[in-house]
Design a protein that fits this description.
about 20% helix; alpha+beta; six-stranded antiparallel β-sheet
Amino acid sequence: MQEVLSKTDDPKMPLREQEFFELSLLDEANELGNRYYVRQAHAEWSEIDGQIMWDQGEIERFWILDEAKRRYAERRLALTERGFIHSDMELF
């Protein structure tokens, strides 16, 4: 699962005025079983580069899916409280 959150859903707003967070819940199979990752990355306009730039993001690892889901929900709630209420997943 992966979604991009923003403070606006206005397609006419210039990129220079926007900020985004990508929140992901990913899994990876290995010899010990499935490992789950919750990743949060941030993007905003860079005047130097003249484009939206993404940071490397923060990654948390879990062996238990329910723990990863709980952490995803906590991170999503924290972003919502900061005003990032529009999700690209709501478009589908």
